[in-house]
Amino acid sequence: MSEIKLQIDGKEVTAREGMTVLEAAQQAGISIPTLCHHKQLDPYGGCRFCTVEAEVRGWTNYVAACLYPVAKDLIVRTRSEKVDRIRKMILELLLAHAPDAFELQDLAKEYGANKDRFEKDPSFCVHCGLCVRYCAEVKKKNAIVFVDKGKTREISFIPEISAKECWNCKECFPLCPTEALQAAFVLVKAFTFPSPSLESTPAE
Amino acid sequence: MTRINSAAELEELRQGILSKKDPDKPSIAICAGLSCLGLGNGAVINAFKEEIRKQSLEAKVDVIATGCHGFCEKGPIVVINPEEICYLQVTPEDVPEIVSQTVIGKKVIDRLIYTDPKSGEKAALMSEIPFYKKQMRVLMGNNAKINPKSIDDYLAIGGYSALAKALNEMSPVQVLEEVTKANLRGRGGGGFPAGRKWETTRNAPNETKYVIVNAHEGEPGAFMDRALFQGNPHSVLEGLIIGAYAIGSQQGFIYTRHDTPELRKNVDIALAQAEEYGLLGENILGSGFSFKVEVHFDVGIFVSGESSALMRSIEGKAPEPKPKYIRTSVHGIWDRPSNLNNVETWANVPQIIGKGSEWYNSIGTEKSKGTKLISLSGHVCNSTVVEVPMGTSLKEIVYDFGGGIPNGKKLKAIHFGGPMGGTIPESLIDNPLDFDVLSKLGASMGAGDMLMMDEGTCLVEVARFFLDFLSGESCGKCVPCREGIRQMLNILTNMTKGKGKAGDIELMEELAEVIGAAALCSLGRSVQNPLLSMLKYFRDEFEAHIEKRCPAHSCKALIALEGV
Prior knowledge:
The complex is a heterodimer of chains A (204) and B (564). With 204 residues, chain A is of the alpha+beta class.
């Protein structure tokens, strides 16, 4: 693996080929905030909170640090007026769903996000996918999944699998950034009212 | 069918097919495009078959169900060959008369031919009808001549000769160079040079490469790819095989919608016939080049037409886009180099190889070459598919081909490119159809779908409609797209209900900036485009809604508030 030199916040950083900007920054002691990132899991790029400015040959682009690969002569700016605006807006959008999540509240203070900017729609879930991905990648059970698409996308336990797997595991509960009890609620709901999206549709 | 092993054998077969065809033999070509079928053409086709049988004319007259002829507004359309007499709005009751008067008697039935709505002039021949006369139907013109279910019909009009030329007389690099020289730009929306894309995949370091036809066409108001692919599937397939040869791919995919059974039928038949003739499979035309094609269906979500989502879908995964920090032309399906072009782009390839890049460059504008299929819909007299040279003025498209705006109303705006496109006002319709001109105006051409809107259209409602569509058709993975759409949709819905408030427009602009910069995929980064273009040209209309007025008198809640 060859070494790659790049610049993050004005500091020259050496990284290995194949590393992401987030990994290179962490290694150099530069912090980039994340929401859906987890060390044990594959990078996901869903929350976009780690968005940074990446400049290549004079062109600036906004990229997710958790996925963007390091490259020679890449210039990264982890904070800028626009990056902060993006993060503030992401927080405000998520706080409409989970206004009481501690992690979001802490970040809201840092970025000056207003938790009441958007009409409340307290679904609690911010779709970070930590529970879903943990179950798929670490436990390899797929007991909890995303169902549906677009604005109706939600997490749901698969009753048939969770009935066997979940009671003795529950390792995904503490991963939830909004409310640990949330997962328990979704689990119970799945048993009581399975998601209509999971019901088999009649063959055409 | 016997396998063809060389270009010479292909020519022999073609001559054999042609010698069996009597050019003077009457044939009845009935449009079986989706629109005409919807208008009851199935009954017309059956009536013709029945009438021919009754009069024992089976040996003397051919009846063919063809692909879309265009001019859908006047369907069902029937063309009597060899004279090319074109009858419009044909019903089963007209059939006995058409057979006895025109097919046998060679007389034109006056009431069924085209009458110009303004001048009252009549036109009996397809080539005389202004709608067809002014078009340049390089890709669509053959639709009315062939049965899309018959490879022999395609061979009879010179089909697969471009493939024979490419395989026999040209090296893969020469084919690639010809396409590059032709300046063919992707027809799916991006307008990216096809030659450059092909070259990237060709040069990518992996032995296994894929070529893909994007036949997803999911945006509301786009139906030209389906008309072309269903009506002339071999033209797209021939382009794909030529492209695979140039790129060095042995495996192709056709990705299309699960809910277009008529298209599926024609594509399946085309693939089976091409394979039987040896135009697909091992050692095509004895050239040593082998190539196979598989058909894949979507799972019913708009975002699966996005290239990285489409490729994941082919892999058998959920169609969620991947960030394209590494291009799909290098790391696509199963991480292998994958070249994706849309239906119309592929269909241009045999034309370019057959007639040369010089010919192709003679059509169009400086940077947009060739013809473009346009599907017209909305407030326009002719909802239809037309094919025009690039550079044709938008005005001509709307008034000459589209027949203008119905019900005596005035044109207000044109929307291009569906839910990720943009709107331009009527005052700009003297501009030409051109990738770069349109994107400079803030309305990317998209796949070529033009939606006409008359003065009674409320653009706040149209912006709301597109976001409503997207709210259910995005994948929902990333926050800016999922939540941004949700909030913009909320604001616009409130505006149409008289609940708009000061600051709404600025908030939407702020959301648009974040979505455009931070969303994960190209769909996410374009969802704000319709709204932004409408704010650019019609900001006062949005401001009026905040003052609880709908200038177009379209939003019911606001009309009630105004007490009109």
